[in-house]
What we know:
Elements: H1 2-94
Amino acid sequence: MVERKHLSLVDEVKELRGKMVEKLELEERMIRKMVEERVKEELEEVKAKMKEEMMMAAETLQKMAREMAKTSMQKVGITLLVVGTIACICGKLMG
């Protein structure tokens, strides 16, 4: 009788140990899934932020290009004015 009770308890312990291992494996899978989801969320946030920064950089680059073109045109205009004035003065001196 004692032997039978002992074997019964041993079987119960084995069964509980098996259930505990299953529970731990399930928890591990759930934790992995949660970590993967969080990593995906963070990756999406980083992608969105990078996209926003790239758009801002593109806008800034376009503004700089417009300003540089405007400045270049101003320099060309001033140069033409100076050359025209010199030509006028030379024309008056010669004529």
